[in-house]
Protein 1
Amino acid sequence: MENLNESYPLNLTSTRRRDLLPWWVKFFCWFFMLFGVTAIICLIAGLLGFYPVMSFYGFETNEPTSPIGLLLIAVCLFNGYTAFLLWFEKNNAIGIARANAIVGIVVCVVSMIVMPFFQNGFKLTFRLELILLALYYRKLTQIEDDWQSKVHL
């Protein structure tokens, strides 16, 4: 009988994909899965005439159905979806998570540099989320090959 590992190029005896994620990414997976559910609740509340205050990546609104509100809901849902893929070790999780990090960086930069021109009084701020997003992207890049070499059972 032929050895299973020789006929199948992927490593079946290794650790789970989730074990490749540092503790802080695991924490944010749960946080953003809950955040995604909260975004759906905010959207429903907005459609019913309620005005929950939403703020993320430097954008803030109390109108979920406004363009900014819909942007925030979309970003929150994307973060929730990404967190779900990472937590449940899906094959495409790393690629989508890297795209998610890039979207987060772009949204932060827009809120820091572009939005102050449209507000009363130009006030430049630095978003600390950029540091976490850069570290997140870097970690995803580091574990990508190991993630792809593991079989999701």
Note: The helical segments are 4-7, 23-47, 67-87, 93-114, 129-149.
Protein 2
Amino acid sequence: MVSKQIFDLALALDWQYDWDFIGMLEKHAQRLGLSTYIIWPGNLDETVVKIKNQEFSFRYLFDRASDSTPEFLDLQKMLLEQGAQLFETVENLKWASDKATMHLEFIHNGIHTPYTIILPSYETEQDYLISVEDLAMLGRNFIIKPANTTGGGIGVVHGAETLQEVLQARQFLDQDKYLIQEIIHPLEKDGQRFWFRGFFSCDLVQCAWWNDKTHLYKELTRQEINRYKLKPIFEVIKKIGEVSRLKFFSTEIALTEEGKCVVIDYVNESCDMRIQSRHFDGVPDIIIDKISRQIAKFIKDKIR
């Protein structure tokens, strides 16, 4: 009889650009004494067979694949049935990824957002009317974005001007709700656009400059935080953590000329973790390393 191998942590990925992040997370987990096993499309079938044959079992799953590859969702269900713990539940991810839901939750919890009109799906209400007054509140140009479709700007229309564009956008993803939002213009000072990407990982809050036009990151220093009085941004990210109920996400926040922190991209539950040392538009390596270390510590505490 083959003896069962019991691993502390399974790390699942299906995107080639996740290898650096998963590698960092594995390194920190192993330094804490955890045994690890990476599951990816190349070994998924083999791993499933070994689980079914009781050759493998896992205590904990960190899953970066099930939201985009159905076979990994089947793997997740199998591991849960065998008693494994899960970093984020499917229910929590789905709830937090709905921009319409998060918009209302943010307003209820005092988090500033752009002026927004939430539209039902085209499938359920084709002839939904927007009043002239509401349209005027958006300004001359506005943004149209689907509530539940995320990643790569799918379905997002920037600089829209007409109701015809709204109608066309709603038909593109006709089963999804849509948000129509005013365009937020950040403070510009000392050669900087005051637009930031915040990262929340198991109560650790980090922030970086992120240019919404070039999509490039730059490290935010402690001196800059103090100089520009940016600590309120970190408090907003903590509050988003409470509202979203997620352990790991990113968000976009703009600081306006009036000094208001406005959350733009509410909760990105599947953060792009490409590292800056390999990708010109990637996240600074030091931020990803700290995220990895924090998540590894969290998991270590959960499976003691």
Note: The chain has three domains: 5-88, 115-182, 185-268.
Protein 3
Amino acid sequence: MNIAASGANHLAGGVTLDALFRANATARPGAIALADPPDRAGFTDGEPRRLTYGEAEEAVERLATRLHSFGLPAGSVVALQLPNVIESVLSLLAILRAGLIAAPAPMLWRRSDLVSAFAPMEPKSLIALSRFGDERPAEAMCEAAADLFSLSFPCAFGANVPDGVIALEQESEASPPSNATRPSVGSVSLVTFDAAAEGFFAAARSDAQSLAAGLAVLLEAGIESGDTIIATLPGNSLTGIAGAIVPWLLSGGTLELIQGMSPLSGDSGGKASRVHVLAPAAVMPEIVARRPGAFASCIAAHRGRTSQRDLSSLPCGRIVDLFAFGEIGTVAVRREDPSRPEPIPIGPISAPGGAPGGPIVIETRIDDGRVLLRGPMVPTTPYPSELVQPRLKIAGDGFVPTGYRCVSNGNGAFTVEAGPERVVSVGALRFGLDDLRARLAACNGGIRVAAVDDALLGQRLRIEADDPSAAVAALQAAGHSRLVVDAVLRDTHSR
């Protein structure tokens, strides 16, 4: 099977992500499709599972049937807050199959963030876990539901699901979803969340736009039919979706999910399988060292300033840098010199490697030292509407300003110097600084927040308070995430 040609044809022909999954399940029902993190039982309910395509297809159909039984109109938003476990992928596919819009959110969000981001979209359902480490996301979801009046069907996986929350392990007696409810391939099917200084905004994509982002990675990394992809980044951002989920659907191989710095399995795809790994560039060597053997490619994700991490010692055939401009677009560039990333081309970028005749996956432009993007993966309209979400600005020529600052190398390419102004990026989490300050001030007038550079995370929050103990209590009561609460300086001598 010529994956490159097939992917380009899918991009032109308008196939859905669900159709790709169905095709894989039909062609390879006994092949391993999905694998849980080996240490799953340490952070959530259930032992690690490995599902064949046939088993995964049955699970997706059951879950889509359950969602269909809620009687939601086609195109309704279903929010997801799941870590990098099998249920996250099954839920995403089931939502699409049921004709609904999937909106995955970061695991660290709690009530304050969930309400701030989701309120404009009026989600009808939210799917969470009953347990994640020592936290109870399903309970936090119930708290958020008090402010999200549209949320009628809170759902959760796991044991000890709270009262009022639908346990998704239960079988449904409803009729399977009808294909007639599925929106067209060009309509919104997936929403991920970005941040401007004023707060969160939604980046909405059709299946075709998601496919364009993933096709670029598949071609640059040389992912072939039946390969294994190890994903250390979850599918709640464009980086995780383009870097792992869509290439997995295109290649029909095995997707092994890793949560955080969990150990990597040594036998995810069998001895004959070529293995690729997606991980943050800053920790790629540490991730790779957790699994013996060689990799066909290492896909190093950059979410802010270009990391100059030397990856020449990695045991892999290719190194691909995946540059994320928030949720607006990604650019995949294969390294010529494994010790440093290549600069990003200015203008139309085709895959693989700018090959003549290859599909154009994105186009870059520089204006006043900042990056703009347009192309088949880039959002074309604000969601849910320009009146509600004015933070995604789209020019008349289709270019979208990213706010990312860059430096041109003088040869038609550039490197990223910093993310958007007044946006804090703590690892994969992004906050609008103005919005966060306003929400924190509403909790306690004596709170002051700043962002400081961090070698590993890019940035981290630093919160000072006149009364640290009172500030912590107020932030917890308001439903702020542990990341925010833990940023409060308890020791006054550290100010």
Note: The mean pLDDT is 90.
Protein 4
Amino acid sequence: MNYKEFIKDLEDYREEHKIASFLSRLWYQIQQIPEKISCWYQRHTKGYCQCDVFGLGDYIIGKAYKPFIEFIRYEEEHGMSLPLKFQSDPTAWLVVLSKIEYALTDAWKVENDIDYLDSLSVMNEEQMKEHVAKVREGFLLFGEHLMDLWE
């Protein structure tokens, strides 16, 4: 069996089992209703739910990513806040922010962009080491300058 025959057989199988697949997904969604209600209640009473705790890093990235990107855009346009150590060189602060942005963007894309993982998989070993080092540096800078993120 060649590749084209395999794809045709797969499409035929999916077509034959379309209704069963739909019903299976529907049943799964119905089973998830109690958990979704529980999570909704927990998020509105505690601010988070138990499923957020299991993937705390993903939860933090999901909450921090978009506001941080907005913070950077505001800093680039207005330059309002500068930590004391960057008073003499404001552009160095923007460099630090861009390194943090790289790390947060990578973590956000890993969880939210299916195609991004494919782009990472084509990197050779040297490129991957460089990428991981940049992400690690960005997160270290994020931890170091977390309290400097104010306007």
Note: Residues 1-54 form one domain.
